[in-house]
Write a structure and sequence with these properties.
This protein is an alpha+beta fold. The chain folds into 2 domains: about 1-25 and about 395-420, no CATH class; about 40-380, 3-Layer(aba) Sandwich (Beta-lactamase). It contains 13 helices and 10 strands. It has helices at about 1-25, 40-55, 90-105, 135-140, 165-170, 195-210, 215-220, 260-265, 270-275, 295-300, 365-380, 385-390, 390-420, and strands at about 55-65, 65-75, 85, 265, 305-310, 310-315, 320-325, 330-335, 340-350, 355-360. It has a 6-stranded antiparallel β-sheet, sandwiched between helices. Strands 3-4 form a two-stranded antiparallel sheet. Strands 5-6 form a two-stranded antiparallel sheet. Helix 2 (about 40-55) runs antiparallel to helix 11 and helix 3 crosses helix 7. The longest helix has about 30 residues, at about 390-420. The two termini are about 15 Å apart. About 45% of the residues are buried.
């Protein structure tokens, strides 16, 4: 009797776990913020979220079939618009990946050759693992085995900015909890997010092209795409840059970076719209990639190169947020940095539908609204939405376990009392 009771309890725990976790991933318990297909309703709901939760400034653009169908701009201080520059943190990596792939297409880089083949100014430190397994492909997909965990905090105004090679050896602006050393600490081929990997790609672009990183990116990616408001280095301090705010809506520090490729892109809502549109055929018949990258290269960049827990999560420089229900993925990149920078761009390459949100003053507002867009469009949960809600999901799961165990104990006591009365 006791064995049967234990088995039934374990079965109930197993069923609850499977149904709850599966249902959460599939979005069974979730309601979209607007009726499916109702663009006006989504715009109203998204703007409501932005106006309620922003603590600084926001630039928001919504696209359908590659065309802008709505936008919204709000700020506590000086006004922002589609041409205001925002520092976008890790969103920089997606744009950097375009630069890397131009060199691959030009035959100057081999995706699968050891990155050490191209480096003269700096080398990976010795490791118990094979450094020759660190390739451009693996750096782009965060599967090179680098364990720096960066995260760059940046340098305050007036502080000297660390040289690139010194930053790779030990980043002076490493985010808290990380030593800032770029090295191979796990077997290459394993997913481990690495900001240092993109700083290494920054050095690679400079070594192979013979140009400073920002110069190369402007000449070969930003300029040709029409992203003329974008730069990885501000030449003039007050060049139409959005004010920086903390989570309390107070003016905050504007940090600078050695890690340009990983964290330092300044871009505008208009320019990020152009980047999304460049994945689609142009109005005048221009091919995807706009002649900067081949259409096949764009497809290769959104092919799964990294998985976690059996889920495809990363391509070459782009996040694979969720299936788009058309045999592809919703792609893009987010950015987060102190004091409270949060940026998000999402694109469905099958339709040209997309969203861009650039903001300061709230650590997760852009990511949250972009995740709602994915669920509204596809019924699938965004990878980062699951990560943001992991704590509450786990709490609910554990609460269910406790309820089942308590119910089993109560039922067991009741049965024993009932048997004792007979």
């Amino acid at each position: 009797m006791i064995v049967r009771f234990v088995v039934l309890t374990l079965l109930a725990l197993f069923v609850w776990t499977g149904v709850f976790v599966g249902g959460t991933i599939e979005g069974w318990w979730r309601t979209p913020i607007a009726p499916a297909g109702d663009t006006k309703a989504f715009l109203a709901a998204a703007i409501g979220e932005i106006d309620t939760k922003h603590r600084g400034n926001v630039a928001f653009v919504l696209l359908q079939r590659g065309a802008v169908v709505g936008d919204h701009f709000v700020s506590l201080g000086k006004p922002v618009d589609r041409d205001t520059r925002f520092q976008v943190a890790s969103m920089s990596k997606w744009v950097t990946a375009w630069g890397v792939m131009t060199l691959v297409e030009a035959g100057k880089l081999d995706l699968d050759a050891p990155v050490s083949k191209y480096l003269t100014r700096w080398k990976l430190p010795p490791s118990q693992f094979d450094n020759n397994k660190v390739t451009v492909r693996r750096l782009l997909s965060h599967t090179a085995g680098l364990t720096d965990g960066l995260g760059y905090a940046g340098f305050k105004p007036g502080e000297p900015i660390q040289p690139l090679e010194a930053s790779l050896s030990k980043a002076a602006d490493a985010s808290p909890g990380h030593d800032g050393i770029v090295r191979v600490g796990i077997e290459p081929g394993t997913f481990e997010y690495s900001g240092g990997g993109f700083t290494l790609l920054q050095l690679l672009i400079e070594e192979v092209s013979g140009q400073p990183f920002n110069d190369y990116m402007k000449a070969n990616v930003l300029g040709p795409l029409g992203m003329t408001g974008s730069t990885f280095i501000l030449d003039e301090p007050a060049a139409n840059v959005a004010d920086f705010y903390d989570v309390n809506g107070k003016p905050a520090t504007h940090y600078r970076f050695t890690a340009l490729a990983a964290a330092s892109l300044y871009t505008t809502a208009a320019d990020m719209t152009r980047l999304l549109q460049a994945h689609m055929p142009g109005q005048a018949g221009e091919p995807p990639g706009r002649g900067i990258l081949k259409p096949q290269t764009l497809k290769d960049m959104r092919r799964a190169h990294a998985t976690q827990f059996g889920v495809d999560i990363w391509g070459l420089g782009t996040i694979l947020y969720a299936p788009n229900n058309a045999g592809d993925y919703i792609i893009g990149h987010d950015g987060n940095n102190e004091p409270a920078i949060n940026t998000a761009a999402r694109l469905d390459p099958a339709t040209g539908d997309g969203i861009v949100i650039l903001e300061t003053g709230n650590r997760l507002l852009a990511t949250s609204v972009a995740g709602e867009w994915i669920f509204w469009r596809t019924g699938n949960l965004d990878l980062l939405t699951l990560a943001m809600e992991a704590k509450s999901i786990f709490t609910t799961l554990v609460a269910g376990w406790i309820a089942i165990i308590l119910a089993a104990l109560v039922a067991g006591v009741w049965l024993r009392l009932a048997r004792a009365r007979r």
